[in-house]
Each structure stands twice: as structure tokens, then as C-alpha cells.
Amino acid sequence: MSNKEHWQKIYKTKLPKEVSWTEEKPITSLELIAKFDLPRCAKIIDIGGGDSLLVDFLLHEEYTNITVLDISVAAIVRAKTRLGKNALRVKWIVADVRDFIPLESYDLWHDRAAFHFLTEKEEIDKYYQLVCEYTNNIILGAFSTNGPLTCSGLEIAQYNEAKLQSTFGKHFKLMECFTSDHTTPFATTQNFIFTRMSKNKNS
Fold first, then answer.
1. CA–CA separation, 55 and 87 (whole Å)
2. Which CATH architecture has domain 3-199?
């Protein structure tokens, strides 16, 4: 089964309360976004956004230039249905981040869902080249070294601050880095590592 088929099946067969990544309110992401103090017209992309509620809260806070990318058509359809008319205020992209070729640059790149599913060096290198070329600011949430080894039946890559520094530090400054427990809808705990990064001025 391809990655696309895998995620399409997940979003067609499982409700938000049946998947581990669901958050009633993405507090950590919202707090990190606020720290960048971007104008409300800033171009923000949510990588692997699926049917996350982050877009709802960003719209409520009057951000006007939001893009959501996800590999699953079903996930995006579900998010659009939930948002109703507000869905017209968002740009939607169906794509695997591995194959994503942006048509514009972004003021902020947010990813709490996709990066840790990249387990091959060439995938990680390509992701790094993407962010180097198309954004100056990143918020990244990934499974920590105290987190799970798999998610949704797929292997993941775990991260700590040193590994994030090794991966992104050549062109980005890690402005903060911390771990956080996420309580899943079925009352288990997953440990994430979050980092907020900005591109070095000489990059």
C-alpha cells in the first residue's frame, strides 16, 4: 500500500477521536506561532494538516493567508466540510511533502504531523532543502526519543535537540526546543519535541 493509499484509508475509516494525533485545541502550536509576532497577512503553511483544528483557530485569530497541505484528499474534504464557508479563506494542497514543489515562499512553515514519518536520509535531505528554499521560519513538532516508535502502523524517526540541531542547524537557529506530552483521545501519552527556528541571517 502506498503512503497516499494508507492515509486515505485512515481518514476514510477513522473519526478524529479514533486517531492519536487529534487535539481539541493545538495550544503549543498556537503559542509558538504567536511568538513569531507575524502580521495577520503572513503566509502560513501547515504541513500534514489533515483535518487538524489549527486552521480553525488561525482563522479565528484573523490570519488571512493560510495554506493546508495533506497527502489525503479525504482529510482535506473533512476539514473543508467542518469549516463550511470559511474553507474558502484557506488554500488547500493535496500532496505528499516528499513530492511537494511550492509555488510560493512562506513566512512560517508549521509541521506537527509529517516530518517524523520521513525515515530515509534522502527524504530528510529533500525536506531540509524545501525549508531552506521556501521559508525563513519553522515550527516543528516530532516524536521525541521518549515517544512512540510507530504511528498509525508506520515507522517513525525520533528526535532530540541534538539531532534537530544536526539536521537543521547549518542554516537555521533553534530559538527554543522543548518536549511536551500529548494526551491522545484514548488517554495514552505521546512525548513530542517542539522547536521554533529562524533562518540564519547569512543563509
1. 9
2. 3-Layer(aba) Sandwich (3.40)
